[in-house]
Specification:
The chain is globular. The mean pLDDT is 97. It has 2 domains: 270 residues, Alpha-Beta Barrel (TIM Barrel); 117 residues, no CATH class. Helix 9 links the parallel strand 7 and strand 8. It has an 8-stranded parallel barrel with strand order 1-2-3-4-5-6-7-8, surrounded by 6 helices. With 404 residues, the protein is α/β, with parallel strands linked by helices.
């Protein structure tokens, strides 16, 4: 089995231009913080479809960054949020698979399989009661069985366990409680999935590109309880010893980084944190900082995103909260200086002009830049120095430093 390190970062890159800048943040974590961060480049099938890119482009960009910086530590490419319909696009080059079965949560499994699960796990029945275990199995067992089917399909296609497996259940309405997580992990073990990261749905909202919304104390308790559940499941069910929690939409969740950091230090646990869309926003900030044509393009992206807000936001409705009354008009943004644009978009809550509604709209607005084609990509190249500086500083200063 291919093993991933203790601390790993999912580094999304909509346009496959910031691999070197992202990797520099990992290098800084090693040199300045003494922390080994495993970079995992991820881009979902939905994003590839939106951009019009080929999935293998993520591998090409990641390997080019590794070569340029002479990175000798492990790195991975994630087939992000895949299922049986999409996984074959990734088996040839990916070595990390995020198996997403959230859509199957709540679908009724075969009653016989529920009965077998209950019979196999008297320890769970004794602790939680038969009715609770049965209800949980009815809710999650089919999803886990589908995860097993996808895992075995990947294993057969790749010819062995030369990849890392994550199981994702985060894109659903209700959080999984710690007892439910334990029952889910028992079912994963029964499916013989060598899961190394598990992405549950946590309490609170993990909106794209902005801070955590919810009760931080409740999250801290739940996170610590989940760490205890994982430790227990490893011992009880023979799951991989490096199994760790995965926090999806983890970028910019600054208010919970303190509790996460504390928990990791106290328990010695690892973590996988996905930071996908924050890089695209730093590209826009970098273009605005460059001024001239870069700033104008950033303004044009906002105008087009505002005009098409409904269509852009619809696929992300469960992970954004935008108050349209807080969105400035396109004409107002056209009059902004470079500094005004940056201050509105950069996630620095000490700046009075920071606007989380603008940030969320532009987070889902990457499709606008994709439509611009060479105009956008050529400006990324022309403004590479200032864009890369923003990407590296964002990952290192706002994310890695706060966690480690």
């Amino acid at each position: 089995m291919l093993i991933i390190g203790k601390y790993s970062f999912g580094m999304g890159d909509r346009f496959a231009h910031q691999g070197v800048a992202q990797l520099r943040a990992c290098a800084l974590a090693k040199s300045e913080l003494g922390v080994d961060i495993v970079p995992v480049w991820n881009k979902s099938h939905r994003e590839h479809t939106t951009i019009g890119s080929e999935p293998i482009s993520t591998r090409i960009a990641a390997d080019a960054a590794v070569a340029e910086l002479k990175w000798t530590a492990p790195h991975f490419v994630d087939a992000d949020h895949i299922n049986l319909d999409t996984v074959d696009h990734y088996t040839g080059f990916a070595d990390f698979f995020t198996i997403d079965v959230a859509d199957s949560i709540g679908e009724q499994p075969n009653p016989e399989s529920v009965a077998v699960f209950i019979e196999k796990h008297p320890e769970l029945v004794e602790e939680f009661g038969k009715d609770t275990v049965q209800a949980c199995a009815n809710q999650f067992l089919l999803a886990v069985q589908k995860a097993g089917e996808i895992y075995r399909h990947i294993k057969e296609a790749k010819g062995g366990d030369n990849f890392v497996t994550e199981v994702s259940m985060d894109e659903t309405d209700s959080p999984q409680t710690p007892p439910e997580l334990l029952i889910i992990l028992a079912a994963i073990a029964d499916e013989e999935i060598p899961v190394q990261t598990i992405a549950p749905k946590f309490t609170g909202r993990f909106n794209k590109g902005v801070d955590y919304v919810g009760d931080v104390e409740q999250f801290e308790k739940e996170f610590n309880d989940d760490l205890a559940v994982i430790k227990r499941a490893i011992a009880a069910y023979g799951l991989p010893e490096n199994l760790k929690l995965s926090v999806h939409s983890g970028s910019d969740k600054f208010s919970i980084y303190g509790p996460i950091s504390k928990a990791l230090k106290e328990t010695g646990a690892g973590i996988h944190l996905k930071t996908a869309g924050t890089t695209w926003l730093e590209e826009l900030i970098g273009l605005a900082a460059a001024g001239g044509e870069g700033l104008q393009l950033a303004k044009d992206v906002y105008r087009e995103a505002l005009a098409n807000a409904y269509a852009l936001c619809a696929p992300y409705a469960s992970v954004i909260d935008i108050d349209t009354a807080q969105l400035p008009s396109a004409d107002e943004v056209d009059g902004w200086s470079s500094e005004q644009y940056q201050n509105s978009l950069r996630h620095d809550q000490s700046i009075a002009k920071f606007n989380p509604h603008v940030r969320q709209l532009l987070h889902v607005g990457y499709k606008v830049a994709a439509r611009m084609g060479d105009r956008y990509l050529n400006l990324l190249k022309e403004c590479e120095a200032v864009v890369a500086k923003n990407v590296t500083e964002n990952l290192f200063e706002r994310h890695l430093k706060r966690l480690f």
